[in-house]
Amino acid sequence: MSTLSAFGVSRRSCVASLGALTLAPTAWLAAPTSAYAGGQLEEPLMDSVRTALSSAVSNAAPPEPDFPSTEARLVYLRWLGTMSDRLRKRKPEWEVRRDFLQTVWYESRRAGLDVALVLGLIQVESAFRKFALSSAGARGYMQVMPFWTRVIGDGDAGKLFHMQTNLRFGCVILRHYLDRERGDLFLTLGRYNGSRGRDPYPNAVFAAQRNWLFDGRMTG
Asked: pTM for this one?
């Protein structure tokens, strides 16, 4: 994809594994998910970084899966079915679940991120609520701070309640922080939440990530 060069991400890293284990999460669905107040902090960006991030969020390509083989497509369909079952109590309507999961899958892989990690982050940040709004002003599924639309977007913070726009911004920002922290996920997640160096938020996301792990191996 053309936007990968903006991140300095290889195509290989973008086609990362969907996960290592298949779990059957039920307990987390029975209780409300705790929200973690916080948000990304606005920091100066070099012109080259700003340009790269702007390019990464402006590409309006639709979140259509693209598969190199029939086997890869079958793995994706198994993933979609498994994740849909896990998300059913949060999003009862099949079409809504499908569109949401397909977009998360597309935007995560486009940014070279683990899909289970992104779903775990969404669980912690917004409990899968499209119109979530934090006390700090963070918006939507991935609780993106409005200043990002001014820094690397068109300045319309209202668009952060649009599903793909929110997931696009969230994944682009998370990838930016991951690159900045040289692959250290603990520090990356802390920076995303505005609590860099402290344990609660990264640990919550790592715990939630386990609910979305998936064994993508084909059997039979």
From this structure: 0.81
